[in-house]
Amino acid sequence: MKPAPILSIIVPCYNEEEGILDTIHKLEFLICELKKDNLVAAESFILFVDDGSIDSTFDVLRNNKHSSQKIIRLTTNKGQQFALLAGLDYVKESVDCTISIDSDLQDDLTVIEKMLMAYRKGAEIVCGVRSNRDTDSFFKRRTAKLFYKIMHAMDVPLIENHSEFRLLSKDAIIELGKYKERNVFLRGLLPLINLKIVSISYTQNKRLKGETKYSFGRLLSLAIRGITSYSNAPIRFIMIIGFILFILTMFQSVYVLVVYLRGNTVPGWASITLPLCFLGGIQLMSLGVIGEYIAKIYTETKQRPLYHISDIVG
Ligand code: UDP
Ligand code: MG
Q: How buried is 284 (Cβ within 10 angstroms: 0-12 exposed, 13-18 middle, 19+ buried)?
């Protein structure tokens, strides 16, 4: 078994002023216990990544900082994925493994110990997998199911009901760092790096303070990023539809020609409008999907930095 690792618990925070103080104390207590029980090395620490909060989150973090806590602050809100990446980048030289956890502490803290045990027994990635989704709204539950169905149909090997609660070993972080893309969807990358993955199931609690930061728009944008970043299937799907339509149109043309040659053509309204609408719709849809991929290429070629750090505390 591996020795007790140097652990960093990475906590992305965005406008969490209502609940962050609670989180600071609970996590501090947790890391002290882990150190006391020799489950992690004494150098282990908690890293809060303030994702450009516009409320007092950063001040609360700074004013209540314990010695085993560090804070970095991004200049603007970049989203949870990038806040996590910023955290991973920041700690990767100084730790053996990291555990990322949401700042609302909906995830079960007792799972952390199990994650550490799995790591010490050889796992490189340990994913927290939710056994319940009753803390989500009806709408989020349905859309999440649909999302996994689409990903599954496109052969993207996602771990179902795993969000961002996970342990990553140093090797996993290094491998993850080899993916230079800007359109990052961490969950989709994990299975690709081919290291030993273990899942641990747990029950997620309700958010106690503050509101969810994932509006419908943000969820949709994350889902579209997830789909288009990992699969060209939508483009292929459109090509197939286009091909089928082309064949059907050939048959229709023969039919129209025969009717025309027999001389019993009636100035047709339906035969003009129907294909017009149908093809118009398909074309617009196709353009949209292709546009989505071109937008991806556009952002990738710019190679802009993913985030900027404005403050470092600790
Ligand atoms: N978060 C973030 N940046 C964002 C949105 C969210 O760092 O732009 C953080 C947020 O503070 C929380 C975590 O990501 O710690 C998960 O967000 P939330 O709990 O709102 O998501 P939900 O649990 O509702 O899916
Ligand atoms: Mg939450």
A: exposed
Distance CA 265, CA 186 (A): 59
pTM more than 0.85: yes
220 falls within a domain: no
CB of 80 within 6 A of ligand 1: the answer is yes
Do 263 and 298 reside in the same domain of the chain?
yes
Question: 8-22 pLDDT, tens per residue?
Answer: 999 999 999 999 999
Q: Domain with 12 in it: what CATH number?
A: 3.90.550.10
| Atom in ligand 1 nearest the alpha carbon of residue 212 | 20
- As a three-state string, the secondary structure of 245-261 is HHHHHHHHHHHHHHHHH
- Let me know whether 172 and 296 are in one domain: no
Asked if 241 contacts 279 with a C-beta cutoff of 8 angstroms, the reply is: no
Q: What residues of the chain score a pLDDT lower than 50? A: none
Decide if 40 is inside a domain. Answer: yes
Same domain, 120 and 209: yes
pLDDT in tens, 219-236: 999 898 888 888 888 887
List, for residues 33-83, the tens digit of each pLDDT value. 999 999 999 999 999 999 999 999 999 999 999 999 999 999 999 999 999
- Closest-lying ligand to the alpha carbon of 101? 1
Instruction: Say yes or no: 205 and 279 in one domain.
Output: no
Q: How far is the CA of 203 from the centre of ligand 2 (A)?
A: 13
Number of domains comprising the chain? 2
Under 8 Å between Cβ of 38 and 4: yes
Q: Which atom of ligand 1 is nearest to the CA of 83?
A: 7
